[in-house]
Amino acid sequence: MGLLSHPDKKLEDHLKEVKEWGNFYKSINPQVLKEIDADIIDSYLLFHDMGKGTLYFQKYIRKEPVEEKLKSHAAISAMLFLYYHIQKGTVKEREEIIVSMAYAILKHHGDMESYSDIDNYLSNETNNGLLQQQYAAFDYQAMMDMGVRVGLEEEVLRKIFNGDAEEFLRTVSRFLKDRRYKIFQQKSQYRKMKTSNQGSFKEYYRLQLLYSILLDSDKSQVTIGTRKLAERAELYADVNGYIDKKDTTETALNVLRSQAFKEVESNIDLDKDIFTLTLPTGMGKTLNSFNFAFKLREKLFQEKGIPYRIIYVLPFMSIIDQNARVIEDVLEKSGQKVTSRVLCKHHHLTEITWKTDENTLLNNANAEILLEGWNSEVIITTFQQFFSTLFGHKNSIQRKFNKMCHSIVIIDEIQALPVKYYNFAGKMLSEFTTALDSKVIAMTATQPRIFPQEIAKSLCDYKKYYRQLFRTVIYNELDKPRTIEEFVEEIVVEEDRSYLFILNTIESAKLMYTLLKNKYNEVPITYLSTLIPPKERLVRIDEIKKKKYRIVVSTQLVEAGVDIDFQVVYRDLAPLPSLFQSAGRGNREGGELKGEIHLIKLKGGNGYYANMVYREAKTDVDVTERILSNYKVLEEPDFMAVIEAYFEKISDDTVKSQDISKYLLEGASNKRFYGEKESAQLNQGILPLNYFELIEPESEKYPVFIELDGDAADLWQEYIQILKEKEEPWEHKRKLKAIQREMAEYVVDVRAFTRAKYNKPQKGENELYYYVSYSELDKYYDETTGYGVESSVYYY
């Protein structure tokens, strides 16, 4: 077969097809890469695997023994690409673009680390020796002939495949050495002038896009094969018609919702890139934002002829399904056939299926590539997926980056970002809209100061809506700290009223639940926390919505996105945005009796519970207490003034340091993607982007599978069987991921502290989960409060 790229594919065919896939992905992002000449893009895609032409790789692909390092091909491909453009002369005018492409080729089988890796690659003698050995292992005539057939310039190919390995390395080394010197001079100049290296982030986003297109083209060519599955789809949605068909009574709240809907829709402005949508909780922000995004999409298409994707980003995985159902319902009632090309939801536990236009359900490698590549018109995803891609470095995640071009991104509950990242996220999102021709809609009930007012357009006069709402009143009891025992002794649960207690820790919530249950044993009561498996948690939330319980005790998991309604809410001290989110669970639909929100401060043996859970946000809690000390009673029309005062204080760099944001911006500007955290140089004012973390490191949690029922037992047996099977690695990985998604309904993540406190279930040598069998539930699981039974009998 001649030169091979894969066991069953010619190298020449693979390179040509990757070029075609790359041009396909470029064609659906027409504005973003238009500055780069077509022949440069083509050569980038063609050279990405050129190193597979060595004798060493050809032996390896035919299953002949060969030394591991000799079969590697990314570095030799990257350096040949540079050599080609040095010889051609294009590198003089397009240096940064061509070096970015070389770096992407260098890293296309791994993760990005630091952009400077490409400049320093040939400073290493070991790398030089390996490249010289690999260059000498080409069949030069075969490589030239193949290069000509795939569309590269014959005259230049003769120069780079002339058999002179020393000239190859000397030429590329000299170019990189001169480049390092120029960069050193620039940095010295910045230091002398004492200015930041932050300029335009265009180069950062261009590199991310080039890397993504190469990864996506390479994997799509190998797996999907046909571009028909990845083509754009028609999209139509009539949100106005959907709302009109709903049976809504003419309540004061619905009148306000309608007003807000019309006001937001009237504020479409194609010249603006950042929009903010601030409305009180319960005002229908999901439908409002989707309607605005769809109308904006229509106008952009009329002006540019480009169909923008809509990416809906949510802070919590637990609320993706309910939002996806709403959007799917809108599309279906608008007459839109909903296939996976139209709508997909994506998080790390998404079921890997892909519904085609022919109603065929794919659940193989094709489905995985299509889903994780975001080949849909509407994508509903998490903060973790979106921001880990926007600021990411991992090969597996960055592949979908190119689908963020020409997109309208709705970020729901944007205040859920940690405050230390506000400046970083605001600057990077603003640069993102410019670099990738996209729009951002930041949505919240408590608009934080993430974007400068001069660049963001507010979609409605949110203050007038707050002024007209009288659903709830906040009673400030923070000046009276109590233990949970003291609080429960004082509390009086009145007949015909419903009560929600939101606490900061699982332990405090469990104690509150136990004491309230003992005191009011005739009143229907339930409990929620993350130590209850998701399957059971959803059952309880559904029962709460149906008013089955008069008392609910919960951790913060009900704070946002869980549509429940109570007459009285008690909330332990937290940062102000969290308190106001909790207030949104009180009299949500605007009943005649005002909802009461009581802010309390609870303490235990180790101090205040607020300080335990908000250790990193202690400043936020302190600012909250100071601001609220001016109010004993707070009516809903005054909520916004208070939250604005809070964000003004928090955004003051002398109160809440934004150094992490500043250093991360330097990291992005320098294209420093990854670095060991222990060796990161904070005092140099730069942090690699892997410092941006939305969730705690996985090492601090232990996944426990709880066999609640027969379905769980069947899943566990299937999981054990998959672990035992000996089969092709990719198929094994696919089966494992598929079963883990189903198992997630029965898994709780247990923190190290909690694990030390309770009986510990065991874990098999190759198993990912600690396992609680149905026959041993009583040793580890309480049917009301979930995982965690105190005893020394079963302590392993």
TrEMBL record:
<keyword id="KW-0547">Nucleotide-binding</keyword>
<dbReference type="Pfam" id="PF22590">
    <property type="entry name" value="Cas3-like_C_2"/>
</dbReference>
<dbReference type="InterPro" id="IPR001650">
    <property type="entry name" value="Helicase_C-like"/>
</dbReference>
<dbReference type="GO" id="GO:0043138">
    <property type="term" value="F:3'-5' DNA helicase activity"/>
</dbReference>
<dbReference type="GO" id="GO:0005524">
    <property type="term" value="F:ATP binding"/>
</dbReference>
<dbReference type="GO" id="GO:0004518">
    <property type="term" value="F:nuclease activity"/>
</dbReference>
<dbReference type="InterPro" id="IPR006474">
    <property type="entry name" value="Helicase_Cas3_CRISPR-ass_core"/>
</dbReference>
<feature type="domain" description="HD Cas3-type">
    <location>
        <begin position="4"/>
        <end position="220"/>
    </location>
</feature>
<keyword id="KW-0347">Helicase</keyword>
<dbReference type="InterPro" id="IPR027417">
    <property type="entry name" value="P-loop_NTPase"/>
</dbReference>
<keyword id="KW-0051">Antiviral defense</keyword>
<dbReference type="InterPro" id="IPR006483">
    <property type="entry name" value="CRISPR-assoc_Cas3_HD"/>
</dbReference>
<dbReference type="InterPro" id="IPR054712">
    <property type="entry name" value="Cas3-like_dom"/>
</dbReference>
<keyword id="KW-0540">Nuclease</keyword>
<dbReference type="GO" id="GO:0036297">
    <property type="term" value="P:interstrand cross-link repair"/>
</dbReference>
<keyword id="KW-0067">ATP-binding</keyword>
<dbReference type="InterPro" id="IPR006935">
    <property type="entry name" value="Helicase/UvrB_N"/>
</dbReference>
<dbReference type="GO" id="GO:0006289">
    <property type="term" value="P:nucleotide-excision repair"/>
</dbReference>
<comment type="similarity">
    <text>In the N-terminal section; belongs to the CRISPR-associated nuclease Cas3-HD family.</text>
</comment>
<dbReference type="GO" id="GO:0046872">
    <property type="term" value="F:metal ion binding"/>
</dbReference>
<dbReference type="InterPro" id="IPR038257">
    <property type="entry name" value="CRISPR-assoc_Cas3_HD_sf"/>
</dbReference>
<keyword id="KW-0378">Hydrolase</keyword>
<dbReference type="InterPro" id="IPR014001">
    <property type="entry name" value="Helicase_ATP-bd"/>
</dbReference>
<feature type="domain" description="Helicase C-terminal">
    <location>
        <begin position="483"/>
        <end position="651"/>
    </location>
</feature>
<dbReference type="Pfam" id="PF04851">
    <property type="entry name" value="ResIII"/>
</dbReference>
<dbReference type="GO" id="GO:0003677">
    <property type="term" value="F:DNA binding"/>
</dbReference>
<dbReference type="GO" id="GO:0051607">
    <property type="term" value="P:defense response to virus"/>
</dbReference>
<protein>
    <submittedName>
        <fullName>CRISPR-associated helicase, Cas3 family</fullName>
    </submittedName>
</protein>
<comment type="similarity">
    <text>In the central section; belongs to the CRISPR-associated helicase Cas3 family.</text>
</comment>
<keyword id="KW-0479">Metal-binding</keyword>
<dbReference type="GO" id="GO:0016787">
    <property type="term" value="F:hydrolase activity"/>
</dbReference>
